[in-house]
Amino acid sequence: MPKVLILTGDAAEDLEVFYPYQRLREEGYDVDIAAPAVKTLQFVVHDFTPGFDTYTEKPGRTWPADVAFADVDPADYAALVVPGGRAPEYLRLDADVLRIVRHFFDTGKPVAHICHGALVLTAAGVLRGRRTTAYPACAPDVQQAGGTFTDAETVVDGNLVSARAWPDHPAWMRAFVELLRANAPVKQA
């Protein structure tokens, strides 16, 4: 059964981890969550509160990581998902994260990112000449990395499927699952 890797860490957006995790498992894929260390991760919930100029953050659910970044062999995985939240701010500094991301782009395997997950891809240097979306505050980062930012529900550019934030989940996962089915189908028993 093909495996999908989710790269995340503490302070990742709760919904942006769990929605693809459950949707991909429902589709028949094995899904591993990779983090800086094998431990219980603390996710967060970002929402909008009247009167605030930006989103607010509240504690979300916890979930165990399956594998540490240093122990990931990306060749074992058919696809990659990079959720948003605050986790990408520090994950982009991890050499193993960058190694993993570059493998998926070098091999043309499907990659999905959402929200601030774009920060990991900009640090890996894989967005040059690519079209993507992300949380709108990440537009300058995408452009500085040589990518074209498109403010849309979801954007598909070759092996890359992106979305702005959790309200875009249905379109994002619909496009990603379609790409997965074409590139790494689950064999039916």
TrEMBL record:
Superkingdom of source = Bacteria
What CDD domains does the record point to? GATase1_PfpI_1 (cd03169)
What Gene3D superfamilies has UniProt attached to this entry?
3.40.50.880
Query: PROSITE patterns per the record?
Result: PEPTIDASE_C56_PFPI (PS51276)
Where would I find the DJ-1/PfpI domain in this sequence? 3-178
Q: Which InterPro entries match?
A: C56_PfpI-like, Class_I_gatase-like, DJ-1/PfpI
Which family is this sequence assigned to? Answer: Belongs to the peptidase C56 family.
Q: Which PANTHER family match?
A: DJ-1 PROTEIN, DJ-1_THIJ_PFPI FAMILY PROTEIN
Q: What is this protein called?
A: DJ-1/PfpI family protein
| Species the sequence originates in | Streptomyces morookaense
